[in-house]
Amino acid sequence: MPGSRPYEPDLRHHGDAEVRGADPGLTDLAVNVRAGTPPAWLKARIAASLDGLAAYPDGGPARRAVAARHGLPPERVLLTAGAAEAFVLIARAVRARRPVVVHPQFTEPEAALRDAGHPVERVLLTERDGFRLAAGAVPDEADLVVVGNPTNPTSVLHPAAEVARLARPGRTLVVDEAFMDAVPGEHASLASRTDVPGLVVLRSLTKTWGLAGLRIGYVLAAPEIIADLERAQPLWPVSGPALAAAEACCEPAALAEAEAAARQVAADRAHLLARLAELRGPDGREVRVVGPAEGPFVLIRLPDATAVRARLRALGFAVRRGDTFPGLGPEWLRLAVRDRATTDRFAEALAKALTG
Q: What is residue 256's three-state secondary structure?
């Protein structure tokens, strides 16, 4: 239509909106928090911390635990109220003239930058290239670059070397590794690297451990960057229970449990992909899946996805719409990986939804 404005995705729409206030019987494939969490031992550790609620929280022990977990000194660690707070701190504290966000990815970094008054440039990865990162696609003049790895919602894991190629003197490189602990071995992580100039790595403990309601994450960066971010942060930003959780999740037994969970997610994801490969739409076409998927979710493309999503909800399943991610559109859906029994039930529902 002449004079009409181009479609602009809702950057503030997230998976929790798909299930907020929903019937308890609705199966959640829209939120990427691991099912069956937090584990009982972690609940007990958090509950034990409640006896100290009268005291102001001391982040020192948790900060040292996170640092030790990544083989870094504590001055390279900043604890935050989830990774989302870290994006706000970066937007407030980092001076950038030409910030670039690589999409499709989690939309909160761009939203935070825009809220702070930054003009944001988008680099859109394409389905034709498998949504894979090519460092040369980012303008040389960009002095702040944000990229997810593995990327939400595409589930693409970019090679560490390719992500590191984005770094250069005078540029802040923000790598969102919120889902890296769901990758067996974390082989593409830059979290422990100290040789990459301007590197800022964000981590979240909410996905693997089921702590979205507690809000706990952290930033790993050079001490001077950490100091700048800390000055933009209010006093006592992370609660005592969240600090207790961070400390507990960095212990050797917890890391071993997270690795086992990542391997189980990989097996469950393979089962989901196999079931999706069996399905056909009414026109006989296959469900198109972005691959290889490496995160605890997969991105699919199918005709009439908006109607399919509504039918799935009527059949008892919530999935994440894809049109709120820049670079995608209404034909995309994101599916969280669940156990095999849940996946089998979902595959039956999707087969019905595809035929209307």
A: helix
- 160, 188 contact by CB (below 8 A): yes
Q: Which residue has the tokens 């995608």?
A: 328
Q: What's the longest Cα–Cα distance across the chain?
A: 63
Say whether pTM exceeds 0.85.
yes
> CA-CA distance, 311 to 318, in Å (whole number)?
10
The CA distance from 90 to 226, in Å, is: 10
Q: What is the pLDDT of residues 35-62, one digit of tens each?
A: 999 999 999 999 999 999 999 999 999 9
Give Cα separations from 37 to 32, 157, 209, 258 (angstroms). 12, 24, 6, 12
Terminal CA-CA length for the chain: 30
**Helices 252-277 & 340-354 angle (0-180, nearest 10):** 30
Q: Cα–Cα distances in Å, from 261 out to 35, 218, 254, 257?
A: 11, 21, 10, 6
**3-state class of 225 per DSSP?**
helix
Residue type at position 71: G
Question: CB–CB of 295/105 below 8 Å?
Answer: no
Q: What tokens appear for 160 in the block?
A: 């560490």
Separation of alpha carbons 81 and 46, rounded Å: 15
CA–CA dist 177, 225 (Å, integer): 18
pLDDT, tens digit, 9 for 90 and up, residues 114-134: 999 999 999 999 999 999 999
